[in-house]
Write a structure and sequence with these properties.
Elements (H helix, E strand, L loop, with lengths): L4 E7 L5 H10 L2 E5 L6 H8 L8 E5 L7 H14 L3 E8 L2 H11 L11 H18 L2 E4 L5 H11 L9 E8 L10 E4 L20 H8 L2 H24 L3 E8 L5 H15 L3 E6 L16
Parallel strand pairs: 1-3, 1-4, 2-3, 4-5, 6-8, 6-9, 7-8
Helix pairs in contact: 1-6, 4-5, 8-9
């Protein structure tokens, strides 16, 4: 049918299947939760007629579906015989952890609303035991945070094949307000301001003359080197955490000179690392009002 990887995300209720699906989506997988297992072959047949460019497909399936336990083996075996690369990811957690999670979220267990939640959890564990034995990967989320679970999912789907974190470097002017989407914000208003140089006032930070003026200041070079070191430390760690987007905002007074030049330096440095990075200058089109320069007589 297809050589595209198909991952079945299953396991115990409350063990993190929704988080796993989110991580799969971030990795470029087409995800469907609570897919009836009987519909899977037909869905795949229709889906691959479109030849969509994706990393793979992931389906959330578990004991919430009444017929899942009785039908999954025949359907999975048939898909494998048809040439599908089907893998089973099974998530679980200790009964105590699951009890705590249902208590904290104040949600009912999908398999029942009886007074003895521990018995319901054990019943589901027993139902899924044969599927667990067939799983390609078992992840115990008992002691995981959400970020740690996402990292484990990324390891399962092979991090070398995943889309890289998308980095956006943005310059802006504080006089127009800082961007609300910024993950990291840096203020470069301490640098010498080309705005007060008559020959540079009408230019912007992409101009070589403005760039030279800003970067010849030793404080600029020191700042850039230190900030490069910070980014080189942080970016791999954000990516390992599973962050899909990172916005670095650089601000000066009007977003026309200093922030533009420094943002360009950061962009070039990040691009040299082979990372997925883009740059925008939010306020560069807002023309600065020229200030008369006083001269002594």
């Amino acid at each position: 049918m297809t050589s595209q990887k198909i991952i079945i995300i299953t396991g115990l209720s409350g063990s993190g299947k929704s988080t796993a699906i989110d991580a799969m989506e971030d990795a470029g997988y087409y995800c469907v939760d609570n897919m009836p297992v009987a519909l899977l072959p037909k869905f795949l047949e229709i889906f691959f007629e479109r030849r969509t460019e994706i990393s793979g497909l992931a389906f959330g399936m578990d004991a919430r579906e009444e017929n899942f336990i009785g039908q999954y083996r025949k359907i999975f075996d048939g898909l494998r015989e048809a040439g599908c690369r089907l893998e089973i990811l099974f998530l679980e957690a200790s009964s105590q952890a699951l009890l705590s999670r249902f208590s904290q979220t104040r949600r009912y267990h999908p398999l029942g609303r009886g007074p003895n939640l521990e018995e319901i959890i054990q019943h589901e564990r027993d139902q899924l035991a044969p599927l667990r034995a067939e799983a390609d990967q078992i992840i115990d989320s008992t002691h995981f945070t959400v970020h740690q679970l996402k990292a484990a999912i990324r390891d399962f789907i092979h991090s070398d094949d995943l889309p890289r974190m998308q980095i956006h470097v943005m310059s802006f002017g504080f006089k127009y307000g800082p961007p609300t989407t910024a993950d990291m914000l840096v203020d470069v208003r301490f640098l010498a301001n080309p705005y007060f140089q008559p020959e540079l006032q009408a230019l912007d930070g992409e101009s070589s003359r403005v760039r030279d003026f800003i970067l010849k200041d030793p404080h600029s070079r020191t700042f850039i080197d230190k900030y490069f070191d910070l980014l080189d430390f942080l970016i791999p760690r954000y990516e390992k955490e599973g962050k899909a987007y990172l916005t670095i905002a650089v601000g000066c007074t009007g977003g026309h000179h200093r922030s533009v030049t420094i943002a360009r330096c950061l962009f070039e440095h990040i691009r040299r690392q082979g990372l997925d990075v883009a740059i925008t200058h939010r306020d560069i089109g807002r023309q600065p009002r020229r200030t008369p320069v006083r001269t002594s007589v």
